[in-house]
Design brief:
The complex is a heterodimer. Chain A is mainly alpha-helical. In chain A, about 80% of the residues lie in helices and about 0% in strands. Chain A folds into 3 domains: about 110 residues, no CATH class; about 30 residues; about 60 residues, no CATH class. Chain B is an alpha/beta fold. Chain B has a 6-stranded parallel sheet with strand order 3-2-1-4-5-6, sandwiched between helices. In chain B, α3 runs parallel beside α4 and α5 packs parallel to α6. Classes of the chains: A mainly alpha, B alpha/beta. The interface between A and B is large, with 60 and 74 residues.
Chain lengths: ~210, ~270
Amino acid sequence: MGRGSRVGMSAFVAFIVGVAAILSLLLGDNPALFGEQPGSDELARRLALPGDALLRLVVIIVAVSIVIGIANLLFAHIGRLAQRKFTSAVLLASFGFTIYWYVTRQGDTSLLEAVQVPIESSLAALLFLSLAQGGARVMQKRADIWGMLFVVVVLVVLLGSLPLAELAPVKTWSDWLMAVPVSAGARALLLGMALGAIVAGARALLGQDRSYRG
Amino acid sequence: MDDTTLQVYSLLFLFATVVLVYTARFFHARPGRRRRQRQIAGFEQIPQWTTQSIESNRPLHLGFGGAAVGGDNTPTALAGAEFFHQVIERSNASDASPLITMSAPATIPLGQDTLRRAWHKGDTLSRARWIPPDLAYAGAVTASMAIDEPTAHIMAGRFGAELALMLDSASRHGQPSLAVSDRLDGQAVAYAMADHVLIGEELYAAAGYVAEDAPARADAAVLDVWRVLILLGAAALLLLEFSRQLAVISLPLVAVAAAVLVLLGVISYRRR
């Protein structure tokens, strides 16, 4: 089979599977769509089957992909070790030792908790500092009205979250900001992303995505 | 609105999108046809970064974050892959293969496939790297900034507040960044800390801005059409609501005001 035929075939399969899945998910399990006719329950149930089967396949594939992820990580670090980058040896040794510990101690995760949790906690603390620093640098990066507005809103919301009675008016502003402009902006962003997702989904559904176009 | 009506509307909306995608692709495929796109500042640096990558033989770092194939953010992962494909194609003259990172294991095949299709010099398997999610991802990417010394970072996918660690580190290493996230907290961090930012749906139109690819440009045009239609609808509904509450406002006046508002919106939209 030539490359062109392969591309055409993969686009065709994507189209068939995509249309079957979307019709199944939209029309399945809803007998009301088919009126009061006898057998509409059975028809709706049967229409739901392809969608359910495909979703179960996705769950299985996602579960298997975790193994692929771990393999990818290990191979990348073995490759780095071969290039004499010895920091990767630490990762590989930690991986092996953690597995050994878990197997020989019947599922004991104390090692993970003793190492992983403090490291993640310290990274989270660092994240707080980075965020604070980033907030302070906004005016350097965006010295315009929007940057100024961003900083003012951050300050009002931060002050409003303090448990001080003297700051009650600021809390009122903060609540209003969160309930009205922030909520409206967030909805606008989510709406835009939903539109983008629909266009990207339609492209994949039609077999027009890059993966199918070759 | 009951489930049945909602399903029918969903089908109609999807069908309309499919029709629009095909129509836009048909018009964009005509020879000599090149639609003028609105300007998005975030994309203007990409040609410069790809040139720097070629001249300095340093890789570009392209990050999917937590965007996952098979999850609720599959379109985000696909849009990111399309965007990265166009960026990688532009940097093909470089000797340093771009580095793609992701924290969702299901995105590894997508990342490797993107690199394989767009990068013609091999070494594609080892350059698509999975890193455990969230803070571990931020930590590993931060470490790679010192080791791989990327020319620039393009983070397009799903990121949360941990994006701040990566952007802060990139800034300290003097490595420019472009970021966009489909999560609101990540988007806020991107706006505050990235050198260049895309907002929301601009990620889905990104490929059409980076490439001369007619289908990608057509998809960006479809997004714009939907956005204008939603703006028009929202403006019309708002003004109709006002006209009901204030008896002095007549429908012709409302129509004129709506037209002026939309015109102003379009002008500011194109100037962005």
